[in-house]
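User: Hey, quick favor. My workstation is busy. Could you predict this chain's structure for me?
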Amino acid sequence: MLYRRLGRSGVKVSEVGLGGWLTHGRSLDDSGTAAIVQRAYDLGVNFFDTADVYNNGKAERALGVAIKGLRRQSLVLATKCYFPMSDSPNDQGLSRKHIVESCNDSLRRLGTDYIDLYQFHRFDPNTPLEETVRAIDDLVRQGKVLYWGVSQWPSTAIVDAAHTAARVNANAPVSNQPAYNMLNRDIEQSVIPASLAHGLGQVVYSPLAQGVLSGKYRPGVPPPPGSRASDDTSNQFMGQYLTEENLVKLEKVSEIAKKAGASLAQFALAWCLRLSNVSSVIVGATRAEQIEENANASGLEVDPALFREAEEILSA
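Assistant: No problem, here it is.
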């Protein structure tokens, strides 16, 4: 496993990270989550991503149980706040009240004294940005949070956050967590340039396009039983990727991946990591074999010409 700096910060994260959005506390029980986390850790994964809203706190709790036997200093734990956690009008957004209370709740569920990377899950237009920046800076100064970042923020908000932090002499954001994969390259236009200018690294989610880039789906063939696409509670975000047109194109991309000596999934992850601004790609796993395959994408050397050939197929 190789490691990259998280933006301009000094902390290093594994090129492949483990997330638990659809698995921890949901499709995996505590023992299953612990087994996957342990295997990832053994493979050199140090970046573990979750959020308070994932399964309404159950994902954080499951991850907290899973890491109890691991050396805390070897982990980079990331979680998030923003989305409603109850019907209370203040139990949402990025007000000082919600940020502080959410952080304390996450610390309790994770069973740790500090969060390495605390991320704001979406931009909050209803809270003054200075309030948000000052609140997270206070948590950093208290030692409850080491670094902070954002997720799915537009480039304008990223720039404003960096400028606000500088203006009030607060700790600046070091990361952004966007969707990014071979089928969704939206962040290349403005988010990555803004992040480069202000020292944020990308920790991308859905690098395998909700599993569509895993190679398990074939054109004209029903989704395999037990796959995400066959589960109506998990496939709600797959529609933009799981099209017959994409699957036909991915058959050709799979052949290109073979030329690189890689599976389609490894090729897709390596494609994301081709950019220096991508600090880590976050993958999910329900079986040890999945995290083993994905971890092998770290350090994979691919001829850039093969990436260009794949891009041409997907953009046609």
